[in-house]
Amino acid sequence: MRPILLHGHLRSLTKIRYNSDGDLLFSASKDNKPCVWYSANGERLGTFNGHNGTVWDLDVTHNSRYLLTGSADNTCKMWEVETGRCVYTWETRTAVRVVAFALGDEKALFVTDQTMGQPSTIHIVPIEADPEDQTSEVLRTIVITGPKITVAVWGNLNRSIITGHEDGSISEWNPDTGALVKSAKNHEKSITDIQFSSDKSHFMSSSKDHCANLTDTKTLKVMKSFVTERPVNSACLSPIRPHVVLGGGQDAMDVTTTSLKGNKFESRFYHAVFGDEIGRVKGHFGPINTLAFHPTGRSFSSGGEDGFIRVHHLDEDYFEFKYEEENFDDLPQM
Amino acid sequence: MPIDETTGKSKGYLFIEFETPAQAKAAVAAVDNYKFDSKHTLSANAFDDIETFATVPEEYIPPTIEPFQEKPHLRSWLKDELARDQWVVIKGDDTGIYWNNKSEQPDLVHTRKHWSDMYVQWSPKGSYLTTFHKQGVALWGGPEFEKIMRFPHANVKLIDYSPDEKYLVTWSHEPILMPNGEHHHVIVWDILSGRQLRSFPVSPAAMKTPDAKEKGPGSTVKIDWPMFKWSHDSKYIARMTPGMEGAISVYETPGMGLLDKKSIKVEGLKAFEWSPADNVLAYWTPEPEVGNIPARVTLIKVPTREILRTKNLFSVINVNFHWQSNGKYLLARVEKATTKIQRTHNLEIFRIKEKDVPVDIVELKPTENLTNAFWEPNGDRFALISLEGSAKINIHFYEMNAAATTTVGKKKDMTGQPSVSALLGGAKLLKTLDRKGINQVLWSPKGRIAVLAGVRAFQGDIEFWDTDDMTMLAAGEHYTCTDVEWDPTGRYLMSSVSWWRVQQDPGFQLWSCVGTQLAKQSVPQFKQILWRPRPPTPLTAEEIKQVKKNFKEYSKEFEVVDAKETNKLDKAVIEKRKALWAEWVSYRRRCHEDWMREAELRYEIVGYDRDVEVAVKEIEEYVDEVIDETEEIIGDAADDD
């Protein structure tokens, strides 16, 4: 499997995301310009210019028309994907670390960071069908008093918001009342990523404590734990196979002490049910910061500290691989 | 002193009182049995002793015999059916002993938290595991690793076993004040009884104190350890006093008395080593400042003190001894000064078992700076590591030729003289390797295979070489590995990264003797791993030959056992997997039911039914791409005719 190398960012990647059809790949980086690429061949469509600081997170609407980005320049911007034009800007007091559209794209959340005396806060805003009508109205804010939020996602049918915190705990909030529904301390150190399965019944949470957990959404109970020797920065699930991918690496500071044999940073594939490691994909020159699976499950991408995005179209061997005890017909098709 | 009233002379005895019991004891020891003249001897006794003698009971009371306590079987692990070896591992606070299961998870034998304050060490034949504590050392053994014996020696830091595991030498930087005022650092113990046999002071010359500016509370002291060197049969233990008043003091076990009541005087003694197979000492002396005596290497027999061989050397700076494991050869690595700054190295190899101990000289290139030499166990080959220049590292493999002989042939050659043929002795250079990343050569305990490794400051390259034909079997690496060790049978090699030295990725890797990587484990806070040594085989050479002859039959048995093992393993794993898969399937089915139930709600939020596939229109577009355009000018029709 030959990966396609996307080199467009000057600094490390913070987030990559596929759109719902899978033909576009959006990337956010510490350089201020998010990019959008064709996932089939790696050709870049364009960049979104306007932010003045690290872009921490991005999300795209289901129809791929609008992109939402959150940045360290204390703004959250909405862009028209086709033209690259910024159609609305929300001003905030601190850096925006997380953005996410809700199911149906009628509302979105963004999380402002805990700095300069401001607490970590979730802002839920309405999204107008026509961005001309967009206002700075806020439906609800949820102020966090405990450890700050590092990751946040909308739960099933927008009934909940699942957040990951700096101390390794995962919480569920009610977006209508702002109340904390439940919390579970599934990790020992900061949560780095939460990615859902295609039906949002379970998710992968990755953490700096070298573990990634397959967790049930309803109960927040850990179903399976994958332990590595390095902090895990991102974890995702294959939509069509019971496989999970983990990506990580040491902190940027420790990179100089690793083996001189360069590109040893790898994404690791594990079997979600049996827990065995089934493969590794090498190639990055620095820790892997973000992973995303194509909605069809036929390819996946990784974004690294080295500024490269690697798009891997998986070989047939990978899809044919299965354990004796597995039987894919047992599983209901989504 | 009581005086007899009648004679006016003393009654012949007196009582003396001292300030401390230690002083009294010293006085008794000093004065007892002092002879005034042939007929008058002074005897001195402690007052308490006299009391004891006076109150001896009239009746004989036989001593109570304690009931027999069965001691644990110290060699139990050798009875393992699968002939596995054990190792001890320290990770974090846990110390555990495990069976080596090759690629599978090792089997735990025994584990304990905080077993040792520092590191652990095996006895040379593997019977005991030694742990260090503030109060002393403890020995553990047997199948359950019970405590066998304790030796109290405050703040003990280093230990050394006698080769037969009967005696233990311990050293602590904290001195023990003896009644005679000496400060003792070393104690020799009898292991089975736990008794202290003798303690020794350490001369200040042997304790190399650090520079004046480093001195202060808590400054470290460097010593050469083992300071007391054992002879191969554990009958003698020797240590040296270096320098002008140099001497080798040889003590006999178990009495720990100085052999012949005097040390072997060697003026200018620099270093000595026992032969690993005979009671022979090798030592060397440098050229003295004054006088015209050359530097000399001497071989001396113990206890006869007969000099076996001496060899004069010139312009010597340093000599290191490397004995071959059977005592067959002694390799002396000599560093010479050719000029004030330039140095060369050469080897003087003593053939111990030959008549008159001939010495072969192997010269090396003048630019090569020899750093170490390694003999093949039970073999005739050795490896050298040398530094050429500042970056090039060479590894040379040599094989000893048969001893030099000159034979007078029976046939007469053309001139009518008997033909004389001479076989050169010396060593044959097998191969030279140029490797930047190697600093150690580890021979397999069975010989033949040599592992080249770069440990500690190096990258952790590991190469396996077959020295029979000098081919490389395999090359691997264990990045930043700090230690590499063969198992006692020569079947496996263990490379490890100790957390004490490198905080990144501690753990170990297991290799087969031909270089296949069998297992790799990352263990957080992994500190130490040591193979358990084995005692030498009780089989005779004849019996070993028999085993080799019948090897085919034995291997059939082993193959059957191996096949059974793998089958068992597979079955367990398959069962487990089936269970996990069934669990997963039921979970997914439940989720799917929820999903289908929520379809209505989803439709409301999203505005369309996601599950209904939208008809996809495929549009095929043909794009003509102009690849190349060439213009050809065809001449005017008028020109043709």
Tell me what you see in this structure:
The complex is a heterodimer of chains A (334) and B (641). Chain A has one helix at 316-320, and strands spanning 4-7, 13-18, 24-29, 35-38, 44-47, 55-60, 66-71, 75-80, 86-91, 96-101, 107-112, 121-126, 140-143, 149-154, 161-165, 170-173, 180-184, 191-196, 202-207, 211-216, 222-227, 232-237, 243-248, 265-271, 277-284, 288-293, 299-304, 308-313. Chain A has 334 residues and is mainly beta. The longest helix of chain A is centred in the C-terminal third of the chain and has 5 residues, at 316-320. In chain B, a hairpin with a 3-residue loop joins strand 28 and strand 29 (392-400). Chain B has 641 residues and is mostly beta strands. In chain B, the strands form 11 sheets. In chain B, strands 14, 15, 16, 17 and 18 form a 5-stranded antiparallel β-sheet that branches. The A-B interface holds A 62, 103-104, 106, 156-158, 199, 201-202, 223, 229, 242, 254, 257-260, 272-274, 323-327, 330-332, 334 and B 459, 479, 504-505, 522, 574, 577-578, 580-581, 583-585, 587-589, 591-592, 594-595, 598, 601-602, 605-607.
Put the structure in a nutshell.
The complex is a heterodimer of chains A (334) and B (641). By secondary structure, chain A is an all-beta fold. Chain A is built from one helix and 28 strands.
